[in-house]
Amino acid sequence: MLVQQRKKRATKRLLNKKESLPRGSLSKLKKKLGVNLSNNYNPPSSTPSTLQKDIEEFLCQDDVTKQAPDKKKQLYGKEIRYLLNHLSTVHQRFVIEAGNNCHYSTFTRYVPGFVVKPNVNDWGTCLCAICINPQMKLERLQNLKSRYSIIKTVLIDGLTDITELVTNEIKTKDFTSNLATLKHEQFNITYSEWIKKKNEQSNAPISTKTTITSSISDFDLTHHIDRVCQQFRAAKQARQMAIEEDNTVTIHLDWSENFNLKHASQEKGK
């Protein structure tokens, strides 16, 4: 790679001086070094390719990514957008909907820098407590596995995202079975969870991030996983029904509250 770059730089320098080179130099350079100075040099175009534009437009769709609630959050001069699914799933959808069978590595290379995977703390508040609570609990277990060897035996190697687990029935069954062994342990665990509480700015209870300390035997993650699995199955069934039945549609709604925004131009919810 380095040799090719040096060759390109040398070719550009020679092109600027080829008129002053001795007669016969062009043919000698071509024969010995494979450098053809007879052709005009065209520098690589900085214009985005059609594929790159298609990928960026696809990733800016509201059902693929969602704009961050805080509009002041920006990367590379553009407002951050959060992925609503795994990048591998998004790639598969792009291939189907765009009709472009580009490789996954090519797809990821053209993902704009302002499109990122959200962390559980990226939203001001959350109404999807069933979805985010198990992820937060899983991350807490990951953080404690170096302190408690029993936790390390419970966790599946490489598991960082709860959705990777609940979409695999075998992994889900094994993991929930392993979790049952923690019921016999005698240490405490401190973790965060979204709980609906009264708020001065709202008449109805809203989800609030709360720190909880409990014994590991009372640390409930299994029921969360069961509910997420049910959500996935129900969503998949609804989508399939919409495909097969003319009188059925699926509507995807999401909402993100943020009562900490200070400017009218920033959105409180979507």
Describe the model:
The chain is α+β, with helices and mostly antiparallel strands. Among the domains are: 50-116, no CATH class; 129-243, no CATH class. Helix content is 42%, strand content 14%. The protein contains ten helices and seven strands. The protein has helices spanning 2-17, 25-33, 50-59, 87-98, 104-109, 129-144, 149-154, 162-166, 169-179, 222-244; strands at residues 65-67, 74-75, 78-79, 81-83, 115-116, 188-199, 202-215. The strands form three sheets. The chain has a three-stranded mixed sheet, with no helix packed on it. A two-stranded antiparallel ribbon has the order 2-3. A two-stranded antiparallel ribbon has the order 6-7. α6 (129-144) packs across α10 (222-244). The longest helix has 23 residues, at 222-244. The relative contact order is 0.11. Mean pLDDT is 75; it is low at 124-130 and 261-270.
